[in-house]
Design a protein that fits this description.
Rossmann fold, 3-stranded antiparallel sheet, 432 residues, alpha/beta, 9-stranded mixed sheet, 3 domains, 15 helices
Length: 432
């Protein structure tokens, strides 16, 4: 018997290929799962591999071969045995039928109709994928629950404010109302107010400067400052973000800061090869900055680019990743596809200061498992409301690394001291 091997995404497609190539009389010799991609892409759905052939004259098995066929058990036999157990749960014996492509079609269709999966040999790809899917689903459930309870929480906190505001000095009331307009968490304001009431004297409670100074110190203490970047030289920084957040501009400003101010050798790796004009834009920036540009179309290209940059003596390697959609699991997986090949990386999330709080929470929930080590907040000059960003930084305890504003790549970036951001929050504008 001449045999051939066929691979497909699932059992149905594999059977379709076998029938097309060999016809309905083909015999299925073995079925097994194989990795759906390179070994490092452990989240990929495994593929199906079928070995099949057409019987020739003289291929009929002898009696002793039939009796000993279990010695050569394959994953296809396990698959068939599982199907038999599913349809014959009481242990009744049935006449064994040849494992032809037609029979496999019928059995696979039956499994589909009752929406049950046969037991399979444990596969690390499947296990990781299931864990990832469960994690992603759990995050979505948390997000839905959070959205559902957000209005209830806001209503409860406003009731608390209604009770406490009349007891506060007029200057304190004005300041708290300003923070509410900024969108700062009502619960955080309420707790800060209680601490202020117990910490300040009766005299200082009526001093606007003392009140603001005390609250600003509390707010600054709630933000982690991203002072350090992990890794020995070169330090690898991967910026991730959604479309239109200013990620590429932030890369350009960081490259300028590290190259011109810190006098370091900077390599820019453009992995954002999907967006039209992205490579040309990156090339324009590096010519202006004086950095080195490398292009990475695949994860393997990214590894090679990083190794090449290390050999060339780069101090900082900045990776511009493709924009992703937090609402699409496949889009998030593509980012994971790139990030996991760089274990010793600093993953920074690019957040626009203009974003709504619900969008920020959804974005962070989608990427939190990528070990976010810092944030770059962009478009600071395009809004006067910084409460949503503050809430995310405070609640998730993620570091604030840099603030960007304007279109000038040379000067429109500042190291994100908590005092700078909190001052913008209290003054309702970014001073730059």
């Amino acid at each position: 018997m001449k045999t051939a091997t066929f691979q497909a995404e699932n059992m149905q497609k594999a059977l379709d290929i076998v029938q097309k190539e060999l016809g309905s009389e083909a015999l299925v010799i073995s079925v097994r799962q194989i990795p759906g991609g390179p070994v490092w892409q452990v989240w990929k759905q495994p593929n199906i591999e079928i070995v099949a052939g057409l019987p020739e004259a003289g291929d009929a098995p002898k009696e002793d071969q039939k009796n000993n066929h279990r010695e050569y058990i394959t994953e296809a036999d396990d698959y068939q045995q599982t199907l038999a157990e599913m349809y014959n749960p009481q242990g009744k014996t049935e006449k064994e039928t040849p494992r032809t492509i037609t029979n496999m079609y019928q059995q696979n269709q039956s499994v589909t109709e009752i929406k049950r999966e046969p037991e399979r040999i444990e596969n690390p790809n499947v296990k990781f994928r299931k864990n990832f899917d469960d994690l992603y689903a759990d995050e979505k459930k948390i997000q839905v629950h959070s959205n559902r309870t957000q209005e209830e929480s806001r209503s409860n906190q406003l009731k608390k404010f209604a009770a406490i505001l009349p007891t506060l000095p007029i200057e304190s009331t004005k300041l708290l109302q300003k923070l509410l307009r900024q969108g700062v968490s009502e619960d955080y304001i309420y707790r800060s107010t209680n601490l202020m009431q117990s910490a300040l004297t009766e005299k200082t409670k009526n001093d606007p400067k003392k009140i603001q100074s005390y609250l600003q110190q509390q707010f600054e203490a709630s933000i982690n400052s991203g002072k350090s970047i992990i890794g020995i030289t070169p330090k690898i920084i991967c910026l991730i973000g959604t479309s239109g957040v200013g990620k590429t501009s932030a890369i350009a400003k960081l490259a300028t800061y590290f190259g011109r101010r810190l006098k370091k050798n900077v390599t820019w790796i453009c992995a954002d090869t999907v967006r039209a004009g992205a490579i040309a834009e990156a090339n324009t920036y590096v010519e202006t900055i004086g950095a080195t540009l490398k292009i990475a179309y695949t994860p393997n290209d990214l590894i090679e680019s990083i190794n090449s940059a290390m050999q060339e003596g780069a101090d900082y390697i900045l990776v511009d990743t493709p924009a992703f959609n937090p609402n699409r699991e496949s889009s998030v997986l593509e980012i994971g596809n790139l990030l996991t090949v760089v274990p010793k990386r600093n993953t920074w999330l690019v957040l626009p200061a203009t974003a709504k709080e619900s969008d920020l929470n959804q974005l962070y929930a989608a990427v939190s498992h990528f070990r976010i080590r810092g944030t770059v907040v962009t478009k600071m000059d395009e809004t006067n409301s910084f409460g949503p960003i503050f809430n995310l930084l405070m609640e998730q305890k993620i570091s604030l690394n840099y603030l960007t504003f304007g279109s000038n790549i040379v000067n429109d970036l500042v190291s994100a001291e908590p005092s700078i951001f909190v001052n913008s929050l209290f003054e309702e504008r970014f001073a730059g």
